[in-house]
Design goal:
Helices cover 69% and strands 0% of the residues. The protein is mainly α.
Length: 75
């Protein structure tokens, strides 16, 4: 669980590099989700939550695009 938590934070830092607002929002959401499920004891539910977190990490790494304005009419 801790390994996945750290991986999500590292992925967040890479994906949202130079975007302070997105970095903070992602940090809060990751921490909130893990904290909300901290007391979970069902092995089945824990495995399900870990699968969701793993899927989110893959989606962040492969599907999120950060655009940068290079000119007034170009991104």
């Amino acid at each position: 669980v801790l390994k996945l938590f750290k991986l999500l934070h590292r992925t967040r830092q890479e994906v949202f590099k130079n975007d302070a607002r997105a970095l903070e929002a992602a940090r809060q959401k990751i921490n909130e989700e893990f904290k909300n499920n901290q007391g979970e004891t069902s092995e089945e539910k824990i495995n399900e939550l870990l699968k969701i977190a793993s899927d989110v990490e893959v989606i962040l790494r492969t599907s999120v695009i950060q655009a940068v304005h290079t000119d007034s009419d170009k991104i």
